[in-house]
Amino acid sequence: MTKTLKLIVLAVSSTLILGACSSNANKPTLVKEKDDFATRLFNPYRPDIVQGNVISKDLLESIRPGMSKDQVKAILGTPLLNDIFHVNRWDYVFLYRKGDSQDMQQRKVTLYFEGAKLAKIDADDLPTEKDLILEIDGIRNNLRKADQ
Fold first, then answer.
1. Nearest-CA neighbor of 55 among 104, 123, 140?
2. How far apart are CA 79 and CA 52, in angstroms?
3. Is the dihedral of CA 85, 89, 94, 95 positive or negative?
4. Residue 21 half-sphere exposure toward CB, CA atoms < 13 A
5. Is residue 70 situated within a structural domain?
C-alpha cells in the first residue's frame, strides 16, 4: 500500500512540476483575446492610451512661417520627435488607442525651419479641440455599446 501511495504522489508531483514549466507567453494564438476564457471571465481593465502632442486646428492656426523656434515651442510645446540628423525638422505626433480595441488614431504635424525661423508646415487634417473631445467620447460610447 505504501508503494502504491508513493507512486501516486510521485506521478502527481511530476505532473505539477512539468505543468509549471509550460507557458503561454510566447506561443502564437489564433484566438482573439475576447474569446479567451480567462479574459472573458475576469475582463481586465485596459486604459486608453494617449501619447504625443495634442495639437488642434486652433493651435496650428496660431503659428505661421517666420516665427522663431522658441515662439513655436511656446505655443505647441516640445516636439515628440526631434531628430539629430534633421535639426531643422520637428515632428509632432498624436496617438490615441482605446484600451479594449486595437483601433488607433494617429495625426502628425511636421514643421520645417530655415535657420531659427519656421519655413513650412505639413499637417494632417486636424480637428478642433471640441471635435477631438467629441470624437474620443464617440469612440468610447461605440465600444461600450459593442461590448454589451
1. 123
2. 8
3. negative
4. 6
5. yes
Strand order from edge to edge, sheet including 89-97: 49-52, 89-97, 104-114, 117-123
DSSP category for residue 109: E
Closest CA to 101 of 30, 33, 25: 33
Give the residue numbers spanning the domain of 64.
47-148
Per-residue burial over 22-48, b if 16 or more Cβ lie within 10 Å, else e, is eeeeeeeeeeeeeeeeeeeeeeeeeee
pLDDT tens track for 71-80? 999 999 998 8
Residue 16 C-alpha cell reads as 505539477
Q: Against a cut of 0.70, is the pTM above it? A: no
CATH classification of the domain holding 124 = 3.30.1450
